[in-house]
Design a protein that fits this description.
37% of the residues lie in helices and 20% in strands. It has 354 residues and is α/β, with parallel strands linked by helices. Helix 8 links the parallel strand 9 and strand 10. The radius of gyration is 20 Å and the shape is globular. 60% of the residues are buried.
């Protein structure tokens, strides 16, 4: 039986503050004695603090939850979840992580790069607690595990698939917010498209610009942007936009064109089941295993620390083949498999910036 505690704390989209080292200040008076109540390794409780969009985004956050859920089932770990809400400050992130650590959760995992400054601050106060930071390597400490992925490699495969599946020769990329992490998705995708069809056209768009991070949480904006790209001739659209990506998938599917999902295998996401037949494939990041492996390492008394990288060579990123229509496209799947082998063999070096 699931035993999940959901902690609704204040905040979401002011994640720009989370990108600045100067935003690390918080309310010292509230956590000055925090480390005295933390528990040691093997606490049998673990927590995740969600990124913009929260659980139910059918993508990144849900992938993290899947790892926690697996740990709860297999390791008998009690799970806690903390949700962001609108208008969040850096102090709110610090407070959220502090609360989770004070309650004895170990590890405490921040889902997304926006948690970097807050984790840096809180990890110092709880030296016996392991903190997981997904998608960021900018802050390090003996009790921080940086869980990162080669998103550009999976996106390259998506580019190959898009170029092979496209009939118009025009494909689209939609990023939630124009930050370096999402530009890795764009870079890999565009390179994969161009390496497969040099004459192909890639329409790229970002929903918002920093300091506005709401582009990860606006399905209507994703839908409108996808419609614009469809009007521009795109017949395959790849979105790396969190919850907003669901809007792009809806618009693309309703137009009878191919959508490519991200982070989770979106073909299998119940919230997108109405559109699944037009979800050609998804670029997956093994966030579930990354979360599970970190929790297990703590339970085993050998907590992970430092950079833990998941690439194509270890199936840490990849391209989903759940859609039967995709598996029937022999020329597409053959091209994708060849590209995958060439990346692993280092015959292809995938760019990390457009």
């Amino acid at each position: 039986m699931r035993r999940i505690t959901r902690i609704a704390t204040v905040g979401i989209a002011s994640a720009a503050l989370a990108l600045s080292a100067t935003a690390c200040g918080g309310k010292k008076s509230s956590d000055s004695s925090a480390s005295s109540s933390e528990s040691a390794a093997g606490s049998k409780s673990a927590a995740i603090a969600y990124d913009i969009g929260g659980r139910g985004d059918q993508s990144f956050n849900d992938a993290a939850f899947a790892g926690l859920e697996k740990a709860e089932k297999d390791l008998k770990v009690k799970g806690a979840e903390a949700e962001p809400t609108e208008g969040e400050s850096e102090a709110d992130k610090v407070q959220r992580l502090t609360e989770l650590a004070r309650k004895g959760n170990n590890p405490v995992i921040g889902v997304g790069f926006a948690y970097a400054p807050a984790i840096k601050k809180v990890a110092e106060k709880f030296p016996k607690t392991t903190f997981g930071l997904i998608d960021d390597t900018s802050v390090t400490a003996p009790n921080i595990a940086n869980l990162v992925f080669n998103e550009e490699q999976g996106s390259y495969l998506a580019g190959v698939a898009a170029a092979k599946a496209s009939k118009s020769g025009t494909v689209g990329f939609i990023g939630g917010v124009e930050v370096p992490l999402i530009k890795k998705f764009e870079a890999g995708f565009t390179q994969g498209v161009k390496d497969t069809n040099p004459n192909a056209k890639v329409l790229s768009a970002y929903l918002t610009q920093p300091p506005d991070f709401s582009g990860f949480a606006k399905p209507d904006l994703g839908k409108a942007t996808a419609k614009g790209q469809l009007d521009g001739g795109a017949d395959v659209i790849y979105s790396a936009a969190g919850l907003a990506g669901s809007g792009a998938i809806e618009a693309t599917a309703n137009a009878g064109k191919w959508a490519i999902g991200v982070d989770s295998d979106q073909y299998n996401q119940s919230g997108l089941s109405k559109y699944k037949d037009k979800i050609l494939t998804s670029v997956t990041k093994d966030v579930p295993d990354a979360v599970y492996n970190l929790i297990k390492s703590v339970e085993d008394g050998k907590p992970q620390t430092g950079e833990i990288r998941y690439g194509l060579d270890k199936d840490g990123v990849g391209l989903a083949d759940s859609n039967p229509a995709y598996k029937q496209m022999a020329d597409v799947t053959a091209a994708v498999e060849k590209a995958k082998a060439d990346i692993i063999a280092k015959k292809i070096t995938v760019k990390t910036a457009p």
